[in-house]
């Protein structure tokens, strides 16, 4: 899974299959802003789940 870019922001997903835990690191240009944590089940998080989290973040922060 690669990074998602929106209006100068970059969302970089990372996850651990063993712990069933993931995070999306949010950057504005090269500056780290925050980490969005999430849980998932299965071998990897669904792309739709990650996109929904990014969409929700963008809506909340008017990006």
Characterization of the model:
It is a single chain. This protein has 63 residues and is an alpha+beta fold. It has one domain. It has 1 helix and 4 strands; from the N terminus they run ββββα. The radius of gyration is 11 Å and the shape is globular. The relative contact order is 0.24.
Summarize the structure.
The model has no long low-confidence stretch (mean pLDDT 94). With 63 residues, the protein is α+β, with helices and mostly antiparallel strands.
Our count of domains comes out at: 1
Estimated share of beta-strand residues: 35-45%
Measure the end-to-end span: 22 Å
Q: What spatial order of strands do you see in the largest sheet?
A: 1-2-3-4
In N-to-C order, the SSE pattern is EEEEH
The number of helical segments is: 1
Return the average pLDDT rounded to an integer: 94
Helix amount: 10-25%
Helix-and-strand structural type: alpha+beta
How would you summarize the topology of this molecule?
Elements: E1 4-6, E2 9-16, E3 21-28, E4 31-39, H1 47-60
Antiparallel strand pairs: 1-2, 2-3, 3-4
């Amino acid at each position: 899974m690669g990074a998602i870019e929106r209006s100068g922001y970059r969302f970089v997903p990372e996850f651990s299959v063993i712990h069933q835990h993931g995070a999306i690191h949010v950057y504005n240009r090269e500056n780290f802003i925050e980490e969005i944590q999430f849980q998932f089940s299965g071998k990897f998080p669904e792309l739709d789940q990650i996109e929904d989290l990014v969409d929700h973040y963008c809506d909340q922060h008017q990006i």
